[in-house]
Design brief:
The protein has 194 residues and is of the alpha/beta class. The chain has 7 helices and 7 strands. It has one domain: Peptidyl-tRNA hydrolase (Rossmann fold, 3-Layer(aba) Sandwich). The protein has a 7-stranded mixed β-sheet with strand order 2-3-4-1-5-7-6. 42% of the residues are buried. It is an enzyme of class 3 (hydrolase). Belongs to the PTH family. It holds the Pfam family Pept_tRNA_hydro.
Length: 194
């Protein structure tokens, strides 16, 4: 059956990064784990928080790397090697500067757009970019020099609520997203605005 077997939510570990814009992907996986009654446990050999869950009858793995963002590929690579998962079976959920808060886009393949987590995953997967992405819009601060501090800050509450609504909305379709039934989901999600 086609679909994604490894679902990865990107973020930075530690209390000071909780709820920051850069952790939108990790929040998505945490919410999915709660919905699926899956407890994520720290798994040292996978450098992350890890859990197994059945989605649409298929066993899937949930992963939130506990390395820093720019080393996210280490965790993805470890799980892929252990479970023999190909890059095409990996879905990465991450924050996206190029789309506004309150929006979400699905995408397969492509570059990293300067995202350090994606950059490291691509390199650790042998420069294979063919994995799926759920891109959660966080908006852009307007200038490249401001990006680093922007992504590591908590969004103001109205923006944060939009990001949360986007996560909730996309999770309504998590079974289709994971099963790679993207056509109908994309029509809906790509026109959704929180």
């Amino acid at each position: 059956m086609a679909g994604f077997r490894l679902l990865v939510g990107l973020g930075n570990p530690g209390a000071e990064y909780e709820d920051t814009r850069h952790n939108a992907g990790a929040q998505w996986i945490e919410a999915l784990a709660r919905m699926s009654q899956c407890s994520l446990c720290t798994e040292k050999k996978f450098f992350g928080q890890f859990g197994k869950v059945f989605i649409g009858g298929q066993e899937c793995y949930l992963l939130i790397p506990t390395t820093y963002m720019n080393l996210s590929g280490k965790a993805v690579q470890a799980v892929c090697q252990f479970y023999k998962i190909s890059p095409q079976e990996v879905l990465v959920v991450h924050d996206e500067l190029d789309i506004a808060p309150g929006t979400v886009k699905l995408k397969k393949g492509g570059g990293h757009g300067g995202h350090n987590g994606l950059k490291d995953i691509i390199s650790k997967l042998g420069n294979n970019r063919d994995f799926g992405r759920v891109r959660i819009g966080i908006g852009h601060p307007g200038h490249a020099s401001q990006v680093a501090s922007y992504v590591l800050k908590k969004a103001p509450s109205d923006e944060y609520q939009k990001i949360e609504q986007t996560i909730d909305e996309s999770l309504r379709y998590y079974e289709d997203i994971v099963a790679d039934n993207w056509n109908s989901v994309m029509n809906h999600l790509h026109s959704f605005k929180a």
